Automatic annotation (TrEMBL):
Family classification: Belongs to the ABC transporter superfamily.
Origin species: Microbacterium telephonicum
Pfam families to which the protein is assigned, alphabetical: ABC_tran (PF00005)
CC per GO annotation: plasma membrane
Keyword Membrane: yes
Origin: domain of life: Bacteria
Domain ABC transporter: 5-239
Protein name: Amino acid ABC transporter ATP-binding protein (PAAT family)
UniProt main location, coarse: membrane
Membrane topology: Peripheral membrane protein
Cell compartment(s), UniProt: Cell membrane
Length: 244
């Protein structure tokens, strides 16, 4: 498959600590890839580098055939091609749900408010939150806020959706409703790269699972292969925490 998004030998350090050490990864259009690994393994840093929120120290990044690691590139224009959702929702508390969802379309993409709101209301209807359009985020549950954050990321029709541990801040009973929306997006053909600690979800939804440890991709494969018969001792040791 031709890669839509590609990282080639990417290095990233913070101070004297190498957080990413020669990471190479491809993501094909309509593919769902789950990044797994312990906290501090480099998952979130990799997502932030791909979205140009963090500059890389070495290597190259490609999106749809464009070298987005070229220092001359317009980083803001590149970020408009991604949708990214963090674990902490990052909704604007002073804006309504509808204004949160439409903000990027109106301000960045210069869409008319009526057009942006029509699409936003359709997306909110799809996730059962159309009746919350005029509410502010503090009136929503954590699961509802995270679903709004997902819809906000989808509202500009991104080429790639990056999900960074989006259930980590949720109470256990709210995790399922967010993961169900991600499942629907995956089944609908979205291109998704997600860092997750939800092993069962990665097994069920991802086309491929990538295990990072200490800034290195140790192993990757289909969920059946990686969870059922991991080749590397480090992978087996990590997964044993979830099966013991």
């Amino acid at each position: 498959m031709t890669a839509l998004l590609r990282a080639e030998d990417v290095w990233k350090a913070f101070g004297d600590r190498d957080v990413l050490r020669g990471v190479s990864l491809d993501l094909a259009a309509h593919e769902v890839v789950a990044l797994i690994g312990a906290s501090g393994s480099g998952k979130s840093t990799l997502l932030r580098c791909l979205n140009l929120l963090e500059p890389i120290d070495d290597g190259r990044l490609w999106l749809g055939g464009d070298d987005i690691s070229d220092p001359r590139v317009d980083a803001n224009a590149v970020r408009q091609r991604f949708g990214i959702v963090f674990q902490s929702y990052n909704l604007f508390p002073h804006l309504s749900v509808l204004d949160n969802v439409t903000l990027a379309a109106r301000v960045v993409h210069r869409e008319r408010r009526a057009v942006a709101e029509e699409r936003a209301l359709a997306l909110l209807e799809r996730i059962g939150l159309a009746d919350k359009a005029k509410e502010h985020p503090d009136r929503l549950s954590g699961g509802q806020q995270q679903r709004v954050a997902l819809v906000r990321a989808l509202a500009t029709d991104p080429e790639v959706l990056l999900l960074d541990e989006i259930t980590s801040a949720l109470d256990p009973e709210l995790v399922g409703e967010v993961l169900e929306l991600v499942r629907e997006l995956a089944e609908g053909g979205a291109t998704i790269l997600m860092a997750t600690h939800e092993m069962a979800f990665a097994r069920d939804v991802a086309d491929r699972v990538v295990f990072l440890d200490d800034g290195v991709i140790v192993e990757q494969g289909t969920p059946a292969q990686l969870f059922g018969a991991p080749r590397e001792a480090r992978t087996r040791a990590f997964l044993s925490r979830f099966t013991s």
